[in-house]
Each structure stands twice: as structure tokens, then as C-alpha cells.
Amino acid sequence: MQEAAQKASGKSTGTDQAEATTEFREIQDRYKLAQKTFQSLLKIGPGPDRRTVLETACSSTAEFAAFPIKQAEKTFFRHINEHTGIPYILRENVSQPWHKPFLFIQIQLQGDPLPNKLTHAARKELLSERSQMFFILDRVLRCLVDILGLRRDGRGVIAALDVLRSVKAGVWDGNENELLQVDSIGAVKMNKLTEAGIKTIRQLAGLQCYHIERLLSRNPPFGQEMVRKLKGFPLLRIHIDILGPFKEGQHGAATSKLNTLSTNTDTLWMTRIVLGYENEQVPQWKKKSLWTTFVVEGEDGRLVWFWRGSVKKLENDQTMIVCLAVKKGEKLGVVFACETVVGTTIRESFQID
């Protein structure tokens, strides 16, 4: 406990530094990234926002050098940067290899059709590179999550998970195009639903089959098939109780889970965290098993607690008794979401009284 307090307060020992070096090395080995890439990722600053995470993931990745902007693609990528409304534009000349994944991934997540600025052959070649770019970015983002987690940067972990979730889902989390995640719903159908006030998959999942058919001008059994498909969309829920300050001998089973992210001024607060879902059966999206992440962030943006687990573990609820190292009166933020599905995120706050 004393060693943990020294780490968090900046009073690291030689042993602490050696352990951190070993842990960073394990992260690099886990994701099998180039040494140059990993060293560049380590330079990310504290508390990065979503843009910084995406830009760092693209600009730091030596692996993206294999996808240079070709002569036939220059007009295409300049058009994306200047005329498509992507959230994060470049303020420099579009020419670097990392500009390609940075811009291409954004236009894909935007849900808009690709600009008509490529020949058929150039478009085909670009689309053939898409899966490899997304595969690389997935590894890099997961690596960034682990780096920021080891640094106890809660704000950064949340931002990196946000970008990872968006990339895996194919749409930006928090945008009004999350319905595009549903198979058989494209831009036209999404616009019809949006005009009717249906902007989220959770809202769509709450409709009867005949309402869906009426809104989308489709005949049976389209509605029934849609309802059956939407039953697998994860409807997450959380419940948190502060049980009081930790006392030696209390809740013996929890002592093995003591939060080590403490400082000399923190108190350990026993906390009951209950994670679950509202679905009748274990949710499964697009025939794939799901994983969830739960993050607790302190007022100063530090990482207070992190948990990652399969949605299967949430059957009949997952109850954890943990110790959170926080100050009395501190307001904490929590984020609970599926790792790869947009529209599942629950954000709440609670205060230690």
C-alpha cells in the first residue's frame, strides 16, 4: 500500500521504475508494434481528447507508411479534408502517409458516401486497403488504452476507448448516425427514422414490428426480422453504492482488490458496483460476442478504477466490491459501454459523501 502511494504521488522508487519499464515492455510485446511506433505512442500527453487520440494513433504509426497517398488520390483526400464536414480537419498540406488513414477513417465513420473524385481503379485499390488500415488502427488504439491505463490517465483511457468503439462500430459514438450500425439500414432509411424522432438503436428496439414497417414503408416480415435482430443490441445498466470507508478486517474478500491508485491524502472507500443488462438473453450483436469496459475517473482526470469483461459475465448481474482511493466530497465520473458497439455508453457521476 505504501509503495502504491509513493507511485501515485510521484515518489517512485527504483523498484517502481523497473516495474513500470517491464509493464511497458509487456504492452509492446502484446500488440507487436514496431519499436518506432511504440516509442512515438509513449509521447502522447496527459488527458488527450478524441482528436488527439486519433491523430496520435495515425501519425505515430510506422506501419501506415505502407499506405502513401498516391498521385491519383491527392484530389480525393484534399476534398475530404476541405468539403465533407469531418470533425477533425488538417491545417497543413495533405501529403503525409498518416494523413491517408486519418482522413479516410473519418469519412468512413461519418457515414457519408465517398467523394466522386477517384477513378474506378483507384477507388477499388483504396477500398482494398481499408481492412488493413482498420486492423492496424485497432491494435494501435488498444495499445494506447493500455499505455494510458498504466499511466493512470482516466480521461485519456475514456477518450481512447471512445475512438476504439467508433472505429470498430464504423460510426462515431455520440453522432446521430448510430442507426447505420444496423444491417439493412442505410442513409435513406436512417433519415426516415430520424424524421420520425427515432435517432438511436435503443429507440428503434422499443418499437413494434408493424411500426417499423410503417415508418420504413416495408412489408412483413421485415419488421419481425428487424425486431429479432435488435434483441441482441446490448441495453446496459449500472448501479453504484458507497458502503463507507474501508476498515481492516471488513469485507475480507475485497482486500485482494484494493485499488492501488492512491495518494497519501486519499481514503479507501468500499464501493459496490453492479453491472448488468436489460436484455432477456445474453446480448449478441451481429452474431458476435461482446466485451464491456467500465471506467471510474476522478475529478482531476486520474484513473480510479478500470474493469473489462465479457458481456456473458453480466448475466444475472456482475457485482464487485472494490476499494476506490478518493477524497471525501470528490465527484467521480463513470463510463460503462460495450467495447465495439456505439450507442451503448452510459455516463454517470456520483459523489463521495
From TrEMBL:
SUPFAM superfamilies, per the entry: Sec63 N-terminal domain-like (SSF158702)
Residues covered by the SEC63 domain: 21-352
Region annotation Disordered: where it falls in the sequence: 1-20
InterPro entries associated with the record: Meiotic_Crossover_Helicase, Sec63-dom
Source organism superkingdom: Eukaryota
Compositionally biased tracts (Polar residues): 9-20
Family matches, as Pfam families: Sec63
Name this protein carries in UniProt: SEC63 domain-containing protein
Annotated source species: Bionectria ochroleuca
